[in-house]
Amino acid sequence: MREPSRRVVVTGLGAITALGHDAEQFWAALVAGTPGVRRVQRFDPSPFASQVGAEVLDWDAAQHMDPKEARRNDRYTHFGFVAAKQAVADSGLVMDGEDRDRVGVMIGSGIGGMYTYESQLAVLAERGPRRVSPFTIPSLIGNMCSGMVAIEYGVRGPNFGLVSACATGSHAIGEAMHTIQRGDADVMIAGGSEAAITPFAYATFCAMKAMSEHNDEPARASRPFDRARDGFVMGEGAGILVLESLEHAQARGARIYCEVAGYAASCDAFHITQPDPEGRGLLLAMSRAIEKAGLAPSDIDYINAHGTSTPYNDKFETLAIKKLFGAHAQQLAVSSTKSMTGHLLGAAGGIESVISVKTIQTGTIAPTINLDEPDLPDCDLDYVPHTARAKTVRAVLSNNLGFGGQNAALVFKAV
User: Fold this and answer.
1) Block means of pLDDT (10 residues each) for the chain, length 415 residues?
2) Of the listed 166, 206, 258, 379, which one is catalytic?
3) Start-end ranges of CATH 3.40.47.10 in the chain?
4) Does the annotation count 379 as an active-site position?
5) What is the CATH class of 262-413?
6) What is the pTM of this model?
7) Regarding the domain with residue range 8-251, which homologous superfamily does it belong to in the CATH classification?
8) Helices (DSSP H) in 75-143: which residue ranges?
9) Which residues form a coiled coil (predicted)?
């Protein structure tokens, strides 16, 4: 007879975004409705159709990690590594006292070391193959952040990087939850990290007509569910959780934020970039995640939506929510925090999981800013426009979708 799955809880949070370099600073700015989107500063954006982004400014990785290791690793690894250290410190875990074979790391990235890729291609073109850095491959591959965190703490449990485009961070947290549930680890450090505000990334996404061209008002460029939305705004950073089995957390007297109660993954099997216009794949992921959490749709108090500010996503995600929740959809609070953070691609699910946890902890729902004219009748839910809202929240659903038709849904609930 199969043993029941172990319950999994959140005990630590780490976050680096355009709104702040740690989880508390980030959360305070988010609930204040602070826009993190500006004109891009890391390179001259003038040649690009989209010239705005949610950059992490005033950031020096060498202040947070060994300067030599900082030089050898990509910006995406810097973000994930430092956010992981924040989360571990927040959890109160002392690795010297842990069975390090029972601690694992799953930090995903949708793109990986884009800065390294671009800079070393330029070296190859301008100076020849002998001048390419020997650290290029380990710096650009998408599993290196997980490896660096494991090396830092000497933990030998399950360790890899996931890739599922913009669903990556949510998939990483969900698969880490499963790892604990089936008994392969007691502790998992999980989430997503991304640093794709680069010329090549902008050129490619602009070629797809995927990014906002509201360059005259950067702070208002990301406007999910609004009639004037015209594409996503690139963000960067990392969001990391420390997950533990409930028994492990209780045994060491840990502060428990909430439970990761449900997770599901699905595929639209429809198109490489466009979501299913019937919302079938997302509906499947949401319904399965809620069921696995032991809840009914009516038990969900808040949805942190994928809400990318693209014409297709916001319309079809709203449709999927209405199909699943029925009349309860009109009672739900639904917001897109990408209106402030931009879209962090593979890190979106990590950051939005931090937001989901803080929502339960604080009883505050972060708003959707820039929502001046909802795109009726397609976008007709309560998107918590402009201003944060105080509300007792017992259960949160977090959605993330990715190119390739990949969907991930996570359910967090109060313990």
Assistant:
1) 76 98 98 98 97 97 93 97 98 92 98 96 96 96 97 97 97 98 97 98 97 98 98 98 98 98 97 93 98 98 98 97 97 98 98 98 98 97 98 98 97 97
2) 166
3) 8-251, 262-413
4) no
5) alpha beta
6) 0.96
7) Thiolase/Chalcone synthase (3.40.47.10)
8) 75-91, 114-127, 136-140
9) none
